[in-house]
UniProtKB/TrEMBL annotation:
Alphabetical keyword list: Oxidoreductase, Signal
UniProt keyword Oxidoreductase present: yes
Signal as UniProt keyword: yes
Family: Belongs to the peroxidase family.
SUPFAM superfamilies the record matches: Heme-dependent peroxidases (SSF48113)
Protein name per the record: Plant heme peroxidase family profile domain-containing protein
Plant heme peroxidase family profile domain residues: 90-289
Signal peptide: 1-19
Organism per entry: Triparma laevis f. longispina
InterPro entries reported in the protein's UniProt record: Ccp1-like, Haem_peroxidase, Haem_peroxidase_sf
UniProt lineage: Eukaryota, Sar, Stramenopiles, Ochrophyta, Bolidophyceae
Annotated Pfam families: peroxidase
Amino acid sequence: MMNLALIILFVLVLAFVDSFTTTTYPLRRAVVHCRTTALRSTSRRSFLAAPVAIAGASILLSPSPAHAIVYYDPMLYGDAELKVAVINRVRQKVRDAITKDPQLGVELFTLGIADSLKFNAATQEGGGDGSVTKLSASSPSSKFVLNLASSLKKSTQITLPDVIALASAEAYETFGGLRVRVQIGRVGGDKAATAQNVQSVLQNEWDAEVTSTFENAGLSKRDVAALDAVRGGMIEVVKNMQIAKEDEAYVNEMGETDFVPNTSFGGAAQIYGKGLTPFDDKYLKAAVKGKRGVFADEQVRAVGEKMSVKNGKDGAIALERALGVGKVYTGGKVGDLTGQ
């Protein structure tokens, strides 16, 4: 009996163990599977996240990437009051310099246009980034804007391209033109591989190559006609002033002196100082009639025949368009960008 009882007990134990194993093993297998899957998933996520983490660290540790686009940051100079103060300081110093040396005004006017025309409309790269000074490092205009920007940076955050653009606009107004809205806050753009070569714009005489440069920057033949008419008119003013100065020197040798008091009140002349003799349409008419320079182009000439820059409107519109090509805003409020 004892043996039979032991045999029955052994059979029952085996049955119980088999039943327990059949019931619990799938559960254990499922638990192990879930843990393995979770481990694999965690490992996969860690593996994929590793390059991202490394890239993020590289971005933080590496220098800022070079920009090929000229961005406009409306908050670069802080609030509107600070911005106006910066603009006024630049305008004042530019006007003072031009009244002492009118030829500098012609060069500053052209320098601002050339800097902006580096913009390539096809690639959307380049623009007013200040690098035009490298093309004419020895010119009085480049030296002037570099020195002015350097001196102003001691107390402001002014950028070189903003100084160049403001100087160009102020030169236009000092020669009798209308106020031009200049959008300030330029940053970047100096690494544009496809920027236009604007060496021809810096030359004394503009030709068909300059017209192509304007068009490649997204401007029109009307723009090049207006700005060449203004530039030529400014050159004529300088020539006439030099002749007048020679005549005055001759009169003074005779012992005669004249004193003409400054009677200008209000407006830019009162705020920033005296201006120069305004430019007129004489150069424009002569260039159109003689088919000279950019006016050798039939379409440019046709625009010039119907144009007058003496009132300042056409020149102001064209200069504002030229100084603002390729605008790409970043940060701040766009409405705060206009330097007025």
